[in-house]
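The material for today's practical consists of a large collection of protein records. There is nothing in a record beyond a sequence line and a structure line. As an example, a complete record with its sequence and its C-alpha cells follows:
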Amino acid sequence: MAFDFKKEYKEFYMPKNKPMIVTIPRANYIAVRGQGDPNEEGGAYQKAISVLYAVAYTLKMSYKTNYKIEGFFEYVVPPLEGFWWQDGIEGIDYDNKSTFNWISVIRLPDFITKKDFEWAVETASIKKKMDCSCAEFLTIEEGLCVQMMHIGPFDDEPVSVALMDKYLE
C-alpha cells in the first residue's frame, strides 16, 4: 500500500473545522512563486499549479523509468498547500486578488534529493512539453501555527481566517 501523507500526518493534512495549534516540522517541497488573482483563467496561478503537479507526478512515477531514486517507496502525492500575502496592507484585501503574492507547494517525501528534483523538472518539461523551470526545491520549517479546515469556496475564506485570528487572541 502506498504511503499517504494525509493518513500518516492527519494533524497537518486533515485538520478539524475549528482552529487548533500545530507545530509543522522542517520538510522539503516543490514550490512555485507568483503574483496575481488565483481565479484568473489561464493566469499565473493556474500555470503554476500545472507545473507543480507535472513535477510531483514525474517524481512519483520515477520508479517506472530508468531513473532510480535511492530509498524510493510508493506514495500518494500530498495535497496542494500555499502561502498567501499582499504587500503594503494590514490583513488581506480579498476584493483585490490581483495584488496577491503566493508560494504554492507540494510536500516531497524525505528520500527525494535536490538532484532527484532537478531530474524531475527537466523530465517533466520534456515529457509535458511545458517549461517547469520556475519550480524550486524549497525547505520550510513553519514551526508553531494555527490551522483549521476551510470548506467551501476561496471567496468564503475570510470567515475561517477571522476564526483563526480570534483563536490567536
Q: What stands out?
A: The CA atoms of residues 118 and 137 lie 8 Å apart. The mean pLDDT is 95. The domain at 3-168 is CATH 3.20.80.10 (Multidrug-efflux Transporter 1 Regulator Bmrr; Chain A). The chain has five helices and eight strands.
